[in-house]
Amino acid sequence: MQMGEGVEWGLHCLVALAWLDDHAPVATGRLAEIFDLPPEYLKKRLQPLVRTGILTSTPGARGGYSLARRPEEITLMDVVAAVEGRDEAFRCTEIRQQGAGTLAAPTEFGDACGVARAMRRAETAWRRELAAQTVADVMGMAPPGAPVRMRRFYQDITL
Amino acid sequence: MQMGEGVEWGLHCLVALAWLDDHAPVATGRLAEIFDLPPEYLKKRLQPLVRTGILTSTPGARGGYSLARRPEEITLMDVVAAVEGRDEAFRCTEIRQQGAGTLAAPTEFGDACGVARAMRRAETAWRRELAAQTVADVMGMAPPGAPVRMRRFYQDITL
DNA sequence: GCGCGATTACTCGGATACGAAATGTCCGAGTGGATCTGG
DNA sequence: CCAGATCCACTCGGACATTTCGTATCCGAGTAATCGCGC
Question: Which residues form the signal peptide (chains A, B) (predicted)?
Fold first, then answer.
């Protein structure tokens, strides 16, 4: 089980956009320079964030991406759901109904099987923790010098 | 982010082995019949459980797999770690040190970055829930008729 | 009838193909500013 | 010198290759029961 790099990239970009909040869109090329990432691929990874309403995209010259809402209102759950999809990591294929299960009364399958329930319970805890943390919280964990350094860096590459 | 089917198969097989606990090994072919799964592929999926000491394999005729320890002592965390690997789903690639981060003092990177800490916190909650549940707990969630039906089915296919 | 050995059938384990999904790249649609022209 | 229209550079969005990982299959090593043979 492996999570794609889109979540890491997306979260860092969201934090960066929040820090250099000059109300002007930031192009993917600039964001890619900030983290030294492949620009075209980063763009592809940010598009899901636009579809789900986390980012706002401005086409045309001087265009780019902006935060669609305040950092305190963007949870990590939102970002993970947007990038990695909404369906659960563990998907129950109901193999209990196969083989030996074909002999059981259908009423036995009224509630979800124990395996799925146990896995879902763990995954719910994961989602709960993700939903409890916002981009603003992540910003608060950064060292104090990081925001100003980011603004300076951005000014340098936009010259 | 998608979890492989090995976890589901492995857990169901562990429960089945615990139910028909006649202290005799069960071959993968029989386990595959119980859940109507591809036998060869199921075998490949159970091998990690042997390597990590959850299952015991008996080679030769009348061989097969047996539980290496009691169901109460097999946590879901053990199974997930064995099948899906031990490394975390979210892997921090330290992109904060790239680009704009190259200008920062190395002392700023003493503790993990906020993104990684936030994701790790959620994943820890997930692992904690997995470690808190055992195969025995999953067995307890099954309908009462399931164990006897499984034993009957196994007797029929071993004739 | 009984003990011993070779044979045989059955099992796990790892090495080998196949397919799907993630990764990475490209071109087209659209927008805003800059430039050029005419008054 | 100024207003307007045109042109151009820059951006996002989705369609198109490439690589990696998960899925599926096969063959070889090893074991235990079975069968046959000799005593």
Answer: none
